[in-house]
Every structure is written in structure tokens, then in C-alpha cells.
Amino acid sequence: MSKVIERWNIHPNSPWLRGNRPANTIEYVEQLGSWCAYGFAEVEQILGDHENFSAATAAYAAVQVDPKFQEGDISQMDPPEQTKYRKLIGHAFSPRVITSLEPRIHKITDELLDAVRDKGSFELVADFAYPLPVRVIADLLGLDSKDFDLFKGAAFDIIENMAGLDFVAGGDGIEDQIHAAEARLKPLLDYMLDQVLQRRKHPREDLLTYLLQAEQDGDRLTDNEVVNIANILLITGHITSTMMVGNTMACLDTERDKLVRVREDRSLVPTAIEEALRLLPPAATLSRVTVKDVEIGGVTIPAGQMILPWVSAANRDPLKFERPQEFDPARNPNPHIVFGHGVHYCLGTRLARLEGKIAINALLDRYPDFAIDADKTSFFPSEDMVGVRAMPVILK
């Protein structure tokens, strides 16, 4: 078992985080009402083959979500429809755009750490790992920093009350819970619609205006599509980065000799982040549905069946990774699939990696003897996500 998993007993019911692998890489799990894939080769195949494994899983889930929430959601699309939307959104995350954001990310990082300098202690997630990426993506969209609490409330509500496994498997009261969560998201949807309507009247130099004006094959996005795309970018665009920073520091604090090694050799910061992503993937699993009867891992899965490719298990596959339970900050190459594979490879990968590199370097610069209050550190409860929820830092 990885030391960081053992230290906090993260998700005790998740055997894949503990290196306990089923006899078969593909199996049907009655409790989830879904097939599950655990091997790296099988997970990579599922994520890379949209012709056999569709991302449009919402119609097959145990609980149905209002269709208006799904308009423009490229995570629920397959090519060619997905290709059109991805091109529209992808321009905003080009290497040139991301590189241009670097000075702004440094500035926000310094501002956040300056704000906690005289406090004697700070909470890594609330004071730093959360506001950093949310301010960056909000800046891109052209949103006001005074509204950050609204964004945070929506993001944490999704993580804690709309767990993907419950959505897939159902259960007593889950439908009422999902619809209640939809209602709690309404203030954010109303807020974003107001922002969109403002851009219709008064265009600005921001991502919201770009989405409204962008055209692909003669088509433009509707107001509701822009609202959903913006909300998805805002929420998913910072959840991964927030967890990435917290999880990396959790790994380094758990193995202090490796913290010293990375602090002294900053060329290891990017590889340490990648290794933390491998061991503690923010999205432990994804979901797909079989388009037709398909054979994988020696098992034939009928058409119309939900299948969960467990990224957290694939990233520990001993057939792919040497010493898979070890946190090795120098692991290179590190072909984990935290950011997906194939046509659904995460658009925000470059931005997340840049934010992570700047954040971890800044923490090591300011707090070379970085240490956390382990007893008060906690992780999000949803087993389909792995991320630090709270991490008090002890300043020395």
C-alpha cells in the first residue's frame, strides 16, 4: 500500500488504491450495476475507442438529469458532434494562451501567500490550492473575484453531494438528492446566464465573449450552451488543480526525505506532481457505455452496458508501472492516464500542470520546512474522487 494511502486510510473501501487487484481486469459489479475495468491496457482501450465505448452515458445512468444541464457538455458527446465543440473551446487553451497566463498565475500565487504570511498558520486548500486555479479560470472567463464564494459552494456541492458512483448505481433517495443538488446549482446558473447576457450587449476581451462569438461550420453556441460550458470550465477547471496541489503536498509531507529531495532539486517538481496524480488521481474513475457488443480483456460486454474504467487501478497496474505503490518523485516516463486518453483528453491539462508547477515551487520557496497538521487533514468522501479537502499547514 502507498504510504500516503496508509497514513490517512484514504477511501478504505477502495481496494484499487491499496494495490488489491481482482483476478480479472474486467468484471461486472452488481452493487454498481455496471462493468468495471481495472487494467491499464483495458482502461486505455476504453478511453481511446469512442466507436465502441461512448461517452454519452447520461441516458443510461440510474438517475436522469434535466437535459438543459447537458447542452454543450462535451464530456457527454462523441465525434463528430464532440469535435465541433472541442475545436470551439480548444482555442482558448492553446499553448500560446496558456503561456501568456504564466505572469498572472505567478502574481495570484504571490498575492495568496502574502495574505497568509503574518497569520502563523494557514489552510492549504481554503487559503491557497482552491483560490489559485479558480481565480485563474475566473479571470479567463471575465468573472468578478467577489463571486468566488458562489463558485466554491457549487464546486464542493458537486463533489460531496453528486458522487458519480451514486449517479450510476442509484439507490434509496438518490433521485431526490440529485434533483436537490440541481436546485442548489441554480444560483450559479442564473449568475452565469446574467454574465452571458451582459456580454451579448457589451462584448469584452474574455472567454465568455469568445464563446458567444465563436463560429464553427456556420454554427454558433446558444446562450444555454455557453452557460453550461462556462460552468463546466469553472468547476472542473479548478477542482483538478486544487486536488493536484493538495495531493502533491500530502505525498511529500508523508515522505519527508522526498520532500527534501524535491526542495533541493526543483527539476523534480513536475515529475513529483505527475507521480502524485498517478497515485491520487482526482477522478478515480470515469464512465462509458458500450455502443455494441464488444470483447475486452477476454470478456464480451453486450451493447448498452455501463462500464467504469478505473483510472486509479490502471495507474497501479504492475504490468505498466514498476513499483506501482511507491511514490517516486523522479519517475520518468510516467504514462498515467489521469487526464484521459483519446478524443476526450482533458483540454485544461497544460493549464493545470502550469498552475501546479508554479504553486508547488512557491510553497517550497516560502516554506522550506513545510509541515502539515496530519490529524486535521481530511479527504473528500466521494470514492470516485481522490483529493485533499482540508490541510492545515504548520508554519515554522
Describe the protein's architecture and organization:
The structure is a single chain. Helix content is 48%, strand content 10%. It has 396 residues and is α+β, with helices and mostly antiparallel strands. It has a single domain, classed as Cytochrome P450 (Cytochrome p450). The strands form five sheets. It has a five-stranded mixed sheet. Strands 4-14-11 form a three-stranded antiparallel sheet. Helix 8 packs across helix 12. The longest helix is centred in the middle third of the chain and has 32 residues. The model has no long low-confidence stretch (mean pLDDT 89).
Distance between the termini: 31 Å
Structural class: alpha+beta
Poorly predicted runs of 5 or more residues: none
Please, how many domains? 1
Order of helices and strands: HEEHEHHHEHHHHHHEEHHHEEEEHHEEEE
Instruction: Characterize the largest beta sheet: strand count, sense, and whether it forms a barrel.
Output: 5 strands, mixed
Largest sheet strand order = 1-2-10-7-3
Q: What is the CATH C level class, in words?
A: Mainly Alpha
Radius of gyration (CA) equals 21 Å
Number of strands: 14
What is the overall silhouette? globular
- The helix fraction, in percent, is 40-55%
Mean pLDDT across the residues is 89
If you consult CATH, what is the topology? Cytochrome p450
CATH superfamily: Cytochrome P450
What proportion of the residues form beta strands (DSSP E)? 5-15%
Per CATH, which architecture? Answer: Orthogonal Bundle
